[in-house]
Design a protein that fits this description.
Distance between the termini: 24 Å
Number of strands: 6
Length: 192
């Protein structure tokens, strides 16, 4: 378990305990001036951490992701309630619900996600809603979603930035502010 201090746009700090192995939040404490009372800033961070926890559970599932996407989703083992494959499919369905247009609008309206993050989530949600998507492509989209929720929660994530004028590309770790600065500089940003 690792304590992580998150800072929101207002400068308030929040401490959460993050289990790196499972990708789950295992505890939290209130922020400066927040006292754990559920201030709007804490709510924004909590929403992002909930999404991050769900996508981390899917990515670190004990069964291959192919049982949730593509033709293998119809594998008899994936249809047995309580099986790991069945549970993975249920988590993917929960993520699809979490990424629905209505829920994305709520996240965006509450300030939990930025405009850019909302666009990335919309594209990923559209891709993942196709039940016949190739599992390898689904894994790429899940990593993009994880990156969005990491930056929305105040954490950094791996991105690729490209200068469209020169074609120069770099892979870096960045937080939301770094991503917004790259976008202001007219760089192309891709979550990895």
């Amino acid at each position: 378990h690792q304590p992580i201090t998150l800072k929101d746009e207002s400068g308030n700090e929040y401490v959460v305990t993050f289990d790196k192995k499972t990708g789950q939040i295992v505890g939290s404490a209130g922020g400066a001036g927040g006292g754990g009372g559920g201030t709007p800033s804490q709510k924004k961070i909590s929403d992002a951490l909930d999404g991050l926890q769900l996508v981390n559970q899917i990515i670190s599932s004990p069964v291959d992701i192919k049982y949730a996407f593509g033709i293998n989703r119809l594998n008899p083992g994936a249809l047995i309630p309580g099986s790991n494959a069945y549970n993975l499919k249920a988590q993917v369905a929960q993520l699809n619900s979490y990424l629905s247009l209505e829920n994305r609008q709520k996240l965006k309206g509450s300030g939990s996600i930025s405009d850019f993050e909302g666009k990335v989530l919309a594209a990923a949600a559209t891709t993942l809603s196709n039940p016949n998507i190739d599992p390898a492509y689904a894994a790429i989209e899940l990593k993009k979603i994880r990156g969005v929720f990491r930056t929305a929660a105040g954490l950094s994530t791996t991105i690729r930035i490209t200068d469209p004028r020169t074609g120069e590309t770099s892979v870096i770790e960045a937080n939301r502010a770094g991503i917004e600065n790259a976008l202001k500089d007219n760089l192309t940003v891709e979550y990895l």
